[in-house]
Write a structure and sequence with these properties.
17 strands; 618 residues; 15% strand; 26 helices; six-stranded parallel sheet; nine-stranded mixed sheet; alpha/beta
Length: 618
């Protein structure tokens, strides 16, 4: 005769050396669950001692490189009708734990076999990294067990359908094991990799395990191997997936993310993966989220806006139950980026709308306030009014978000106005400080405004005149403490490593700006694409007539500054290319690189660099 299960919940977990987490892991279930079962797989610390002290039933299982076997052993020790299987670094909040008990009671006399919960991954500082869903609460029935030695998951052993109630939005499990420090500890040995490879030796056509192999390589920073494994997983997918296949959805997301942000893949390749992903998993918002960020990084704000808006529409329409984890975990950043894209696309009303939404949620988002002020600066009606317009802007900010009776809020808005170089608003805000406060504030602003040391790449064509001038500029920049790399196609060059044919050979990683003479760094599409991918400011210096550089002026990088040696040249550019080139300055080169020239040049680059960081704070 079968032993009847007790009513209530058995909390189960397998552990090894979890003394840092075990107390919290057992605390959430106190007063909620009927029993707590801890299966130890070989701890050498105080894990077992703490678990016993807290009243848990402790069992021992000899580790055999099989997570499913250990978890199924724990299930076999459970005596209650329901099981909640969380890891030691996971927990419910006290409020949600009470909800869990309510859900179990409501589902008792229904055909449901379990509950789908949310999963919120936290970094080392407790901030949300991503959101997902998990099947961790289920009935204690003999046919429901874990499968696979690693990346184990619950299945029905008799082939019957497992019916799961959706509580993703109501019951989040918080997971603290996803921070950088913990991931580094996990990667010290090759256990996971070895277990995955062992599974693939046994089942080489298991597309899910190929995806997990790609995920493992991704976590180790081995992106080429990750892409190969993820592509293999995609090749093994069915032509038609189920209602929502979470593993396949995540595989496409990881492949897209690596291609877009780690491999500098061709746009056509990225879009090919995107098209297949959206065809097979049409309700997933994360694909448009990745592609939108990719286009924003490259300065294509029209396409970025299109994909980001589509991502948000998909999330709103289909929700995040088992889907759209990356977007769900980065909603504020997505709206922030969308506001920046709308600004760059000239859609000022949309920019203000998104920025206002964000600031209502959190008044102290500096990048968001900066974007909002940029929008006001671009509004001709506001700027025509001069200081009166700035008074209206300050009044709007004071009514909507900030208390100007507090020093903190006054300084916050002043700092943003200085960053945007909105001088009328700077004047208005300074007028709100007492002389004593202003003296301190000025010191703080001066400290913030100190020249930041930059990494600069200087590219110029052959020719003694240009080469001599570029050398002067390089020496002045180096004397200011900036890191300068000089390249030229002329015989006088320091380095002529074929960079024009292979711009990827340039030291672009973490570069702030490229200084280009006579269009030398902007002649080829590959060059422009490289600067855009790395969000590098390109400062172009033209000493000759713009008529000779039509191809460069027609197709230039997203973050582009143009310096002409004569006023008539600048006027010509503004008249003929003003719609696409907004930053045109006159800097005569005839007298060489003077201190005044260097100051203006560096200030322009630093300002543009600052705007790039403001506009695309990902």
């Amino acid at each position: 005769m079968k032993k009847q299960k007790k009513s209530g919940i058995s909390q189960c977990m397998i552990v090894k050396n979890e003394e840092k987490n075990i107390e919290r892991a057992l605390s959430w279930g106190k007063g909620i669950v009927t029993e707590q079962i801890v299966v130890d797989t070989g701890s050498t610390d105080r894990t077992v001692e703490i678990a016993r002290r807290m009243g848990a039933k402790v069992h021992h299982f000899q580790w055999i490189d099989d997570f499913a076997a250990a978890k199924n052993y724990a299930i076999g020790k459970a005596e209650c009708e329901w099981i909640a299987f969380l890891d030691a670094d996971e927990y419910f909040t006290p409020e949600d734990a009470k909800k869990l008990l309510g859900h179990v009671k409501r589902l008792q006399n229904t055909p449901y076999d379990g509950i789908l919960t949310g999963l919120v991954n936290l970094d080392d500082e407790g901030k949300v990294m991503s959101a997902d869903s998990q099947f961790r609460v289920f009935r204690n029935r003999p046919h429901i067990r874990y499968k696979r030695r690693i990346h184990e998951h619950l299945v029905s052993l008799d082939g019957s359908m497992v019916h799961v109630a959706d509580a993703v939005g109501e019951l989040p499990i918080f997971h603290t094991g996803y921070g950088d420090l913990i991931n580094k500890e996990k990667n010290k040995n090759d256990r996971n990799l070895n277990l995955i490879q062992a599974e693939l030796e046994q089942s080489p056509e298991d597309g899910e395990m190929w995806a997990y192999l790609g995920e493992e390589y991704d976590s180790r920073g081995e992106y080429k191997e990750a892409v190969e494994a993820l592509r293999k997983s995609v090749s093994l997918m069915r032509e038609q997936l189920g209602e929502y296949d979470m593993r396949s959805a995540r595989t496409f997301y990881q492949l897209l993310r690596i291609l877009a942000f780690h491999m500098e893949a061709d746009e056509k390749d990225i879009l090919a993966v995107y098209e297949k992903a959206t065809q097979l998993v049409p309700k997933e918002a994360d694909y448009d989220y990745v592609v939108g960020r990719y286009y924003a990084m490259g300065g294509n704000y029209q396409m970025a806006e299109k994909h980001l808006k589509r991502a948000l529409e998909l999330l709103e329409h289909y929700g995040n139950s088992g889907k759209s984890a990356a977007l769900s975990g980065s909603l504020l950043g997505t709206y922030d980026l969308l506001a920046a894209c709308c600004y760059n696309n000239g859609e000022l009303a949309e920019c203000v709308r998104y920025a206002t939404m964000l600031l209502k949620e959190n008044h102290y988002l500096l990048n968001t306030l900066v974007v909002l002020l940029y929008a006001f600066c671009k509004d001709p009606q506001t700027m025509e009014k001069g200081e009166a317009g700035a008074v209206a802007v300050a009044s709007f900010l004071g009514r909507s978000f900030y208390d100007f009776n507090t020093l903190k809020d006054r300084f916050f808005v002043l700092r943003a106005a200085v960053r945007v170089e909105y001088q009328d608003l700077v004047t208005v805000m300074k007028g709100l400080f007492t002389p004593e406060e202003l003296e301190v504030v000025e010191q703080d602003l001066a400290q913030c405004g100190k020249e930041r040391k930059m990494k600069l790449i200087l590219c110029c064509p052959g020719g003694e005149g240009i080469h001599a001038f570029s050398n002067q500029l390089a020496e002045v920049l180096k004397s200011r403490g900036h890191e300068v790399f000089t390249y030229s196609t002329g015989k006088e060059a320091e380095q002529t490593t074929g960079w024009t044919e292979n711009p990827e050979s340039l030291p672009v990683q973490d570069a702030d700006a490229v200084i280009s003479f006579e269009g030398e760094a902007c002649r080829e599409e590959a060059q422009i694409a490289l600067w855009n991918r790395h969000r590098i400011v390109v400062a172009e210096i033209l000493t000759d007539t713009p008529l000779h550089f039509a191809s460069v002026l027609e197709k230039h990088p997203a973050n582009y500054l143009l310096f002409c040696s004569k006023q008539e040249q600048a006027d010509y550019v503004k008249e003929n290319y003003g719609k696409t080139i907004s930053n045109v300055s006159v800097l005569p080169c005839t007298d060489g690189v003077t201190a005044a020239y260097a100051d203006r040049f560096l200030k322009a680059i630093a300002g543009a660099r600052s705007k790039v960081e403001d506009m695309i704070a990902l």
